[in-house]
């Protein structure tokens, strides 16, 4: 099977599902047809696990006037799809009206798919096992400091098509390859972890990931306690800043939450919430990004939205229903499955970012470190990020992978340190926003950043 | 209605035989026919009313101790045949690399067909009845507070599970969970307060006919907790004495200790509990259990078999402070010279079973709640949590969304958003007393996440724990 055969198949099922809806006298319906070839292989201390299969199913929304029901089924059989149509219809008829609901998409308009690599389709468990072998071959087996190394490789070839009784029939395809290595290293009772990964829409070489993760871990060995509580500047590696800056924005950019008066930034629209150098966009059209799609989860063509411009919050993200309620246009941010990773065809559309991007400004990591007299550099994603209070902005995180910076240089690795602060203050207190933007596995891509005094203790 | 689709068993036997024919040493074949429903009522508008039908086959083949997994939603022999071929192919391809062989002892076949019989099975109840429970619950909030926003959540999961393996085991059972939650948010004077209450169980809707779980009771509690939060005071940050309520204690037992005792982490040496059987880790008061079939009436998760066809047991993880066991699948049990514990679970037919928890809890002690508060004297009564984070080294940080300051053994006032943090292996050294009350909860919402398999229903809870020291993070 080729990539274009997959597209034809899902478009065909979406079209057929809509025909079934007409056969069953269902007035208006939307079929979300999902097909995902998934193969993964992980190896941890000689224990190998692998999974291979096709996740496929159909999510059906039925509207009777403003009454809406949803049902889904696994597989593409006529019997299952008709059962889901009937269930969704029954729920719609029994539900009270949803005053916000207007209609399903009626036009067949789509943007561009991201990069597609048909090679990924042919990555069998055997080929993934070969990639993992090459990776492990490059790691020194006799090095006693390496106490754990978990590695994995996986591929996904995913496509979805949307059909509606109003006449929309559109589709999008994605190919993703990922690999990672997570190393645990130890010396004289000092235990450190470090990770390296690759995530791409193309098949990539991952043979050096293990070697790199281990080397990174070694740099953190011989760590010393901080033994103080001080207000110091911190510098975040681009991967760390991407994770760190994802947290406040995951929940607070939803136009649905804004309409429902649950959005923590709800009263900040058109107000300054960050430093003038801070620009944030959401894009679903970067060819290299794994979250790029031609259409969103309800069939609208995907584009790009400027969210924060020169520090001012310009808009929230919307799907059709909530855009209408907020008297604006959809930003094509309807997603299926959302951030928590639910099965897409089992999920009603919800609003979430495609890929948030912090506009790079100037200076790379080294240049930023060189400017700090005394501070902390954080290399790996700290723990506790997701316990931040998005309402007050307060956060308290712990890093086991930090270095002390002295006179513009990395002095030595630190034992566990905690960093406390407030996101709203952070947005106002960038020392630098770097120029080294990366593709991260988080919902947000950022360059390295330097932040003014935060409370460091350890 | 007691019906078993015998055609499914025929297909599963055929799949197992095909796998053996293709060279596998052992094959497990399962079929799920599950039905799920979610109703989300936000500010009295239906935000979501949905059902999910999940039907399909999952095939696990073993070759030379190496597992291979594949799956298909299609109920026809051609698809199942391809799926079996894939599973065997993966097992054979990974076998030469696999150093940790998951071979296991053969057992006598288990032939068991269990039907779930409850008074008000959700499949027999009208949608409107479920919606009306949510409306009743949300309405009751107003008895206590004028909320700025309300949410009512109803969830149900039920269906049939079929299992066959090369030992000729033939198992059929019927999972069931219902769950109702009511949440109130108040924004009076710009101050945000949140109150939530709810209950889930492996019972039918008769659960919500009990006085304590009437939608009105749940809604009124949510209103009450919200009001308490709106008037709550900040707690001083730092090390405190605390009574950890069963809801938060259950989260600790599960998230922190339970995950560390999952045998896949243990067998690779990643868990700090590796090689520690027999060691004293906690005080004599501390016993942690993971159990499969707790009576439905206590709101535990009813889980008679795991997804390797093993009858679930009562696994003692920690007994009077001493580490006694781990949570096994068949392979890790053999590897570590233990008995399988029935902890090999998969979230759907689309995933392989991996070591997961059942109902995890702190076993009860001998204190009444009054005695526990008296012993606490001055300290923090941390009742429940809405989330947090844990590390594989035992470190945890949980927020506390409901808690009270206790003075002289009496509850004085509600404490605003706070957190408990530390390391579970430290915390169990500080348990000074345990209450005799025993509570457990399961649910449709939330659940456990591991290796991309989220949300898996589990049960958690137990007794309340008196600790002489835990790090409390206060609101600023």
From TrEMBL, chain A:
GO cellular component term, pick one: cytosol
Q: What is this protein called?
A: TldD/PmbA family protein
Please give the organism: Candidatus Heimdallarchaeum endolithica
Record Gene3D superfamilies: PmbA/TldD superfamily
Which part of the chain is the Metalloprotease TldD/E C-terminal domain? 230-458
Q: A Gene Ontology biological process annotation?
A: proteolysis
Q: Where is the Metalloprotease TldD/E N-terminal domain?
A: 29-92
- GO molecular function terms listed in the Swiss-Prot or TrEMBL record: metallopeptidase activity
Which InterPro entries does the UniProt record give?
A: Metalloprtase-TldD/E_C, Metalloprtase-TldD/E_N, PmbA, TldD/PmbA_N, TldD/PmbA_sf
From TrEMBL, chain B:
Chain ranges of the Metalloprotease TldD/E C-terminal domain = 239-474
- UniProt cross-references to Pfam families, sorted A to Z: PmbA_TldD_1st, PmbA_TldD_3rd
Q: Tell me the lineage of the source organism.
A: Archaea, Promethearchaeati, Candidatus Heimdallarchaeota, Candidatus Heimdallarchaeia (ex Rinke et al. 2021) (nom. nud.), Candidatus Heimdallarchaeales
Domain named Metalloprotease TldD/E N-terminal: residues:
27-91
Q: Which UniProt keywords apply?
A: Hydrolase, Metalloprotease, Protease
Task: Give the originating organism.
Answer: Candidatus Heimdallarchaeum endolithica
Name of the protein in question: TldD/PmbA family protein
* GO BP of this protein: proteolysis
An example of a Gene Ontology cellular component annotation for this protein is: cytosol
- What Gene Ontology terms describe what this protein does at the molecular function level? metallopeptidase activity
Q: Which InterPro entries match?
A: Metalloprtase-TldD/E_C, Metalloprtase-TldD/E_N, Peptidase_U62_metallo, TldD, TldD/PmbA_N, TldD/PmbA_sf
| UniProt similarity note | Belongs to the peptidase U62 family.
């Amino acid at each position: 099977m080729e990539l274009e055969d997959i597209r034809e198949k899902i478009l065909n099922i979406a079209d057929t599902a809509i025909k079934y809806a007409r056969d069953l006298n269902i007035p208006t319906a939307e079929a979300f047809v999902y097909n995902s070839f998934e193969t993964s292989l992980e190896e941890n201390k000689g224990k190998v696990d692998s999974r291979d299969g096709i996740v496929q199913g159909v999510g059906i929304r039925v509207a009777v006037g403003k009454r809406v029901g949803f049902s889904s089924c696994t597989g593409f059989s006529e019997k299952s799809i008709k059962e889901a149509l009937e269930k969704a219809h029954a729920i719609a008829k029994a539900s009270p009206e949803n005053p916000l609901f207007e209609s399903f998409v009626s036009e067949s308009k789509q943007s561009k798919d991201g990069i597609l690599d048909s090679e990924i389709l042919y990555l069998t468990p055997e080929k993934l096992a070969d990639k993992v072998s090459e990776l492990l071959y490059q790691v020194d087996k006799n090095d006693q400091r390496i106490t754990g190394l978990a590695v994995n490789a996986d591929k996904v070839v995913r496509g979805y098509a949307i059909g509606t009784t109003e006449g929309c029939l559109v589709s999008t395809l994605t190919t993703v390859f990922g690999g990672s290595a997570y190393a645990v290293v130890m010396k004289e009772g000092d235990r450190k972890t470090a990770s390296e990964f690759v995530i791409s829409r193309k098949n990539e070489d991952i043979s050096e990931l293990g070697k790199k993760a281990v080397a990174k871990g070694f740099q953190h060995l011989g760590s010393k306690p901080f033994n103080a509580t001080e207000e110091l500047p911190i510098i975040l590696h681009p991967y760390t800043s991407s994770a760190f800056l994802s947290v406040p924005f995951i929940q607070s950019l939803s136009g649905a939450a804004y309409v429902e008066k649950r959005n923590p930034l709800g009263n900040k629209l058109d107000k300054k919430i960050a430093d003038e150098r801070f620009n944030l966009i959401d894009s679903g059209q970067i060819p290299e990004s794994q979250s790029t799609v031609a259409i969103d989860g309800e069939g609208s063509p995907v584009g790009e939205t400027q969210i924060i411009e020169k520090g001012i919050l310009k808009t929230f993200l919307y799907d059709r229903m909530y855009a209408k309620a907020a008297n604006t246009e959809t930003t094509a941010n309807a997603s299926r499955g959302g951030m928590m990773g639910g099965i897409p065809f089992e999920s009603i559309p919800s609003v979430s970012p495609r890929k948030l991007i912090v506009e790079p400004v100037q200076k790379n990591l080294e240049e930023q470190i060189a400017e700090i007299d005394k501070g902390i550099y954080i290399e790996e994603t700290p723990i506790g990020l997701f316990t931040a209070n998005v309402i007050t902005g307060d956060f308290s995180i712990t890093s086991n992978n930090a270095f002390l910076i002295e006179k513009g240089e990395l002095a030595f690795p630190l034992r566990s340190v905690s960093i406390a602060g407030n996101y709203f203050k952070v947005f106002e207190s960038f020392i630098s926003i770097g120029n080294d933007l990366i593709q991260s596995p988080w919902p947000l891509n950022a360059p390295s950043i330097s932040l003014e005094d935060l409370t460091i203790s350890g | 209605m007691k019906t078993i689709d015998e055609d499914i068993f025929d297909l599963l036997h055929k799949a197992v035989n095909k796998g053996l024919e293709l060279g596998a040493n052992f094959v497990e074949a399962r079929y799920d026919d599950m039905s799920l429903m979610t109703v989300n009522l936000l500010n009295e508008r239906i935000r979501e009313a949905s059902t999910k039908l999940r039907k399909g086959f999952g095939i696990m083949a073993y070759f030379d101790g190496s597992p291979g997994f594949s799956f298909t939603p299609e109920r026809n022999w051609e698809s199942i045949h391809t799926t079996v071929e894939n599973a065997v192919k993966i097992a054979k391809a990974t076998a030469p690399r696999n150093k940790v062989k998951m071979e296991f002892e053969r057992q006598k076949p288990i032939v068991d067909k269990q039907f779930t019989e409850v008074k008000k099975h959700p499949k027999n109840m009208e949608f409107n009845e479920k919606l009306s429970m949510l409306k009743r619950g949300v309405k009751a909030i107003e008895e206590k507070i004028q909320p700025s926003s309300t949410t009512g959540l109803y969830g149900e999961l039920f269906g049939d599970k079929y299992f066959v393996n090369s030992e000729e085991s033939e198992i059929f059972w019927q999972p069931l969970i219902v769950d109702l939650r009511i949440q109130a948010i108040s924004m009076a004077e710009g101050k945000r307060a949140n109150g939530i209450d709810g209950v889930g169980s492996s019972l039918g809707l008769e659960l919500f006919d009990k006085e304590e779980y009437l939608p009105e009771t749940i809604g009124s509690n949510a209103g009450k907790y919200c009001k308490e939060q709106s008037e709550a005071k900040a707690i001083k940050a730092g090390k405190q004495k605390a009574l950890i309520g069963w809801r938060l204690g259950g989260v600790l037992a599960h998230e922190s200790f339970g995950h560390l005792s999952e045998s896949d982490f243990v067998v690779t040496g990643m868990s700090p509990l590796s090689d520690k059987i027999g060691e004293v880790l906690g005080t004599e008061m501390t016993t942690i259990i993971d159990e499969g079939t707790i009576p439905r009436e206590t709101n535990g998760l009813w889980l008679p078999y795991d997804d390797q066809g093993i009858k679930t047991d009562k696994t003692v993880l920690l007994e009077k402070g001493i580490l006694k066991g781990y949570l096994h699948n068949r392979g890790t049990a053999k590897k570590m010279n233990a008995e399988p514990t029935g902890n090999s679970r998969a979230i759907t037919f689309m995933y392989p079973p991996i070591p997961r928890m059942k109902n995890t809890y702190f076993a009860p002690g001998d204190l009444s709640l009054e005695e526990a508060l008296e012993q606490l004297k001055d300290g923090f009564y941390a009742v429940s949590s809405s989330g947090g984070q844990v590390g594989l080294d035992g470190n945890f940080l949980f927020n506390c969304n409901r808690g009270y300051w206790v003075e002289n053994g009496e509850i004085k006032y509600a404490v605003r958003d706070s957190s408990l943090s530390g390391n579970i292996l430290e915390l169990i050294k500080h348990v000074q007393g345990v209450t005799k009350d025993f509570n457990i909860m399961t649910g449709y919402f939330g659940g456990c996440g591991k290796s991309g398999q989220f949300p898996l229903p589990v049960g958690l809870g137990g007794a309340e724990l008196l600790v002489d020291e835990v790090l409390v993070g206060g609101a600023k």
